[in-house]
Amino acid sequence: MASAAPELSVVIPVYNEEEVLPALFARLYPALDALGRGYEIVFVNDGSRDRSAALLSAQFELRPDVTRVVLFSSNFGQHRAILAGFDHSRGRYVITLDADLQNPPEEIGRVLAELAAGYDYVGTIRIERQDLAWRRYASRLMNAVRERTTRVKISDQGSMFRGYARSVVDAVNLCSEYNTFVPALAYTFSMRPTEIRVAHEERGAGKSKYSLLSLVRLNFDLMTGFSTAPMRWFSVTGIAIALLSVVFVLYLLVRRFVVGPEAEGVFTLFAIAFFLLGVALFGVGLLGEYVGRIYDEVRQRPRYIVGTVLERREEPE
Known about the structure:
Elements: E1 8-14, H1 21-33, E2 39-45, H2 52-62, E3 67-72, H3 78-88, E4 93-96, H4 108-116, E5 121-126, H5 133-149, E6 162-165, H6 166-174, H7 182-189, E7 193-198, H8 212-226, H9 229-259, H10 266-299, E8 306-310
Helix pairs in contact: 5-8, 6-7, 9-10
């Protein structure tokens, strides 16, 4: 029989973070102990190929009273690791935190205070971000696109440092879609959301696991998973281009009768043709994203496979 449920669960996905884990342990546990509340930490090892799993197992042996470790059989991605953490968490409040120490563990108390005040979803906005310039600009661009394609209102969608009430976590656990964006999904179930500004630090060690391609793929999950607006926009764009094309053809026809045959304008026609070809290819790719999501869903494959769960169990009386 499992021990009594704590007030707070901290879910931390881990993927190839052996360099930063010791520093994370050294700051995380004291920060949580200082809160004076019952807590548990749910580490989810997302198929790490380094010594992360061994370090997590050793930490479980040191603090089995508050540590739970979920070990994936392979790499399934950060958001599925968070979903697994949700599924194995027991706290009244759940806070997600990256393992790289860019979000200081000492800020957890501030998020917890907002949850205790009655908010069921607490987002965070990173101030003075310590990321590369291209990541900051890409994040702003993706934020702008998401705001215009979905009803999800998240100021800093790249921050995974967030707090959720148990009611929101339980609702997320009932969902079964294969690809999703956890903060946005949780936001759709929130009745009283809020956001706070938090500090942001340089990565503790190692390198970011997110490439530009990964960020683009993640934002496609966000846009196609929570809105059909991109398809509607593309349809409207197609109608507008078709009408402009008709107008242009009429203009060329009239000009031929008025001016006569002309050789000029060939490169303009080529440019227009290439533009229309680009629009068509973009539309095919966008449609492919939606079809691909449907394909993933109908296969009904598991989102993740848990190899082992390390947790302390109480002996039945």
